[in-house]
């Protein structure tokens, strides 16, 4: 876990250290997280609840990824998870 204070510099440092940058988004057109192209080292970018990551930071990532939501949940208006739950699911998925 790391919290970055200078995203521009720190994302470059992560890439230089061999990390693949995945940006978690509720956008269901993004790559499902279990299908993401990852190497041995992955950095997961998470935004705040509500606003999430801006389009700028989604573009900075190597790949935007989503947690697939069921069609029933989507039609009921549930289009995202709270950031803690999303982080837990994403980390579990990436470490399987």
Per CATH, which architecture? Answer: 3-Layer(aba) Sandwich
Name of the level-1 CATH class: Alpha Beta
| SSE run | HEEEHEHH
Mean pLDDT: 88
Q: How many helical elements? A: 4
- Overall shape: it is globular
Number of domains: 1
Structural class: alpha/beta
Please list the strands of the largest sheet in the order they lie side by side: 2-4-1-3
What is the terminal-to-terminal distance? 18 Å
What's the topology here?
Layout: H1 7-16, E1 20-24, E2 31-32, E3 42-45, H2 55-60, E4 63-66, H3 71-75, H4 83-94
Describe the protein's architecture and organization.
The structure is a single chain. This protein has 96 residues and is of the alpha/beta class. Helix content is 34%, strand content 16%. It has four helices and four strands, in the order H-E-E-E-H-E-H-H. The chain has helices at 7-16, 55-60, 71-75, 83-94, and strands at 20-24, 31-32, 42-45, 63-66. The longest helix is centred in the last third of the chain and has 12 residues, at 83-94. The radius of gyration is 13 Å and the shape is globular. It starts with 6 loop residues before the first helix and ends with a helix. The relative contact order is 0.22.
């Amino acid at each position: 876990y790391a919290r970055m204070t200078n995203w521009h510099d720190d994302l470059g440092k992560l890439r230089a250290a061999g990390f693949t940058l995945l940006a978690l988004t509720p956008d269901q057109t993004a790559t499902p997280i279990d299908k993401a192209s990852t190497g041995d080292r992955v950095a997961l970018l998470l935004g705040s609840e509500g606003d999430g990551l801006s389009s700028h930071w989604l573009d900075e990532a190597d790949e935007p990824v989503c947690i697939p939501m069921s069609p029933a949940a989507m039609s009921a208006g549930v289009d995202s998870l709270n950031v803690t739950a999303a982080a837990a699911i994403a980390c579990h998925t990436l470490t399987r």
